[in-house]
Amino acid sequence: MRYMATYDMMETVRNANQWLGATALSFASYPIFSMTPNPAFQWISAWGEVTERTFDRMVTKPDWGIRTFTCDDGKDHLVSIDTIVEKPFGNLIQFAVPGRKPMKRRILLIAPMSGHYATLLRSTVKSLLVHCEVFITDWHNARDIPVSAGKFDVEDYTMYLAEFMREMGPDTHVIAVCQPAPLALAATALLAEDHPEAQPRTLTLIGGPVNPDANPTEVTDFGRRVTMGQLEGTMTQRVGFKYPGVGRMVYPGLLQLASFISMNSEKHTRAFSDQIARVAKGEGGDHDRHNRFYDEYLAVMDMPAEFYLSTVERLFKGLEIANNEFTINGRQIDIGKITTVAVKTVEGGHDDISAPGQCVAALDLLTGVPAEKKASHVEPDAGHYGIFAGRSWRNNIRPLVLAFIDRNSGQVAEKAPAPQAPAARSSNVEPSKAETPKAQAPNSAAPKPQAPKAAAPKPQAPKAQAPEAEAAKPETAKPEASKSEASKSEASKSEASKSEASKSEAPKSQAPKTKTADKSAAQDTPDAAKSGTDDTKPATKRSGKSAAA
User: Fold this and answer.
1) Which of 375, 397, 376 is nearest to 386 (CA)?
2) Where would you tag: which of 23, 225, 336, 464 has the fewest CB atoms within 10 A of its CB?
3) Among 239-248, 409-418, 427-436, whose mean pLDDT is lowest?
4) Which of 309, 305, 302, 311 is nearest to 242 (CA)?
5) Widest Cα–Cα separation across the chain
6) What element of type H or E holds 377?
7) Cβ(54)–Cβ(293) under 8 Å?
8) What is the side-by-side order of every strand in the sheet holding 249-251?
9) Range picked from 350-359, 403-412, 462-471 for highest mean pLDDT
10) Rounded (10°) CA dihedral 429, 433, 436, 438
């Protein structure tokens, strides 16, 4: 009960500001004040509208807002959000599109548990839903989880991820955004040791603090300055009587939001002042740019205190992932055990939360993964939010991630043997080279007029199959000529010399070889045709003609 009063005090302040905004809006909206030519009432009404909406969104879980989707068939299909795995601290949900042909890409988006709901990745889900089957981790607000559900720290988080990956199967492509990147790496290593058949195809880490010391930021410096006792005494509180998780130790979302806003207080102050002016002029809208962003940004959730404290102590201070010393229930998880998963890292050049260098450090830990299965990308002009949502994600990062997934997916791997066609062509060339000396056999029958034709194809040696086809023609014709001469000599009953007899018998002995060569050419030609090479097609036609002759 020590910190329950402070939790309820923060909720009281938030509720009072929401009431003040609603009161100002209602009071200044009375029709009688419209008779007064003073814009003060318009400004009071605008201030009340913006204030009420701002403080109301802090305790409201946003809706996904993905209701319909236009498929390639031109029809609008409803999108249903189905729960695949339900657990106390988070669910695995799927954005199913009934009536659409199943997509080959199955993507598991791991949303961060860092004070915001999974709906922070709404635009990411929409962009991937076009050509992918999308699943996402939907973490629960700790204030709504009873104390009887037990603890939830980084080890439990990692085992949750491993269970979700096992549920989806090996044809899964995992994309971890921000905070869960190092723990997604550990979960994959856990599967590599215990359930290697359930490992995902690819793992994409976006802006995650795998090694916070690689490029320190204000966030990492804060974790270094304060002690764990100070964090536990000033940042954790007990949930008040208003919510089901009464008595649970949490890191309040309102406290996390105050930290976020303090990092860029001038920017946020200017944004709200401009919005009040737009509403006073009648230019504001319920779904304008300001409201779309802050409806999501202000919606915060409480984190279990043990998860927050263990993250700071083990990942930021102890660098257990960076040093490959992470343990689960006393058992060390070796990231080097990952050998078959392709891994890609994405960083933003202007990221002030997870600076460039923190995420790419994961590739150095993957000692068992081949170099061709590793990739990294730094988006020069993108901040932390822009690397998974916004223009940089849509135009540059998303195409690169999908291309990486396709290169390392099971479907592409099945087509991989196709580039072996040149090897098949070279195997067909060897028989032709072996048969090429036989083309010199017509030299023994030099007086015959067909002999010069056998020597003509020699300049066409660059085509591997051409010499074989051309050589087959004279070899087939010469036996016929020798047989006709033998018949003439028998008809005239003239005495032939032994030398002429030997010359006439020489082509006969070559005839079986010619047939054998034709058979070997006929057997090799279909294999070459399968390889799809241009130079084998003419050779196939010529060899067919020689067989007909």
Assistant:
1) 397
2) 225
3) 427-436
4) 302
5) 140
6) strand 374-379
7) no
8) 237-238, 249-251, 303-304
9) 350-359
10) -110
Measured distance CA(548)–CA(544) in Å, rounded: 6
State both tokens at 70: 């236009």
Query: For residues 355 and 349, is the Cβ–Cβ distance under 8 A?
Result: no
Assigned token pair, 321 = 């992932």
Q: Which helix (H) or strand (E) holds 295?
A: helix 289-297
Across 477-504, b (16+ Cβ under 10 Å) vs e yields: bbbebbeeebeeeeeeeeeeeeeeeebb
Q: Which amino acid is at 253?
A: G
Q: Where are the alpha helices (DSSP H) in 408-497?
A: 410-414, 421-435, 451-455, 466-492
Asked if 542 and 469 count as a contact pair (C-beta separation under 8 A), the reply is yes
pTM of the predicted protein model? 0.73
Which residues, listed in sequence order, are joined to residue 347 by a DSSP beta bridge?
378
- The label of the residue with tokens 């020798």 reads 482
Q: 445 CB contacts (<8 Å, ≥6 apart)?
A: 451, 478, 482, 503, 506, 507
Q: Is the pLDDT of residue 250 over 70?
A: yes
Cβ atoms 211, 265 nearer than 8 A:
no
Choose among 237, 258, 238: nearest CA to 246: 238
Residues 6+ apart with CB under 8 A from 227: none
Helix axes 265-280, 40-57, angle to 10 degrees: 130
- What is the predicted pLDDT for the residue at 62? 92
Q: What are phi and psi of 238, to 5 degrees?
A: -100, 140
Do the beta carbons of residue 357 and residue 350 sit within 8 Å? no
The answer to whether the beta carbons of residues 431 and 520 sit under 8 Å apart is yes
Cβ neighbors of 123 (< 8 A, separation 6 or more) are 389, 390, 393
Does residue 109 contact residue 125 with C-beta atoms inside 8 Å? yes
Q: Is 406 helix (H, G, I), strand (E, B) or coil?
A: helix
Count the neighbouring beta carbons within 10 Å of the beta carbon of residue 238. Answer: 21
Tell me the pLDDT of the chain averaged across its residues: 79
Query: Cα–Cα distance between 80 and 63 in angstroms, integer?
Result: 13
Closest CA relative to residue 129, chosen from 39, 210, 67: 67
Q: Which helix (H) or strand (E) covers residue 530, if one does?
A: helix 498-530
Outline where DSSP puts E strands in 65-155: 68-70, 76-78, 80-86, 90-96, 105-110, 132-139
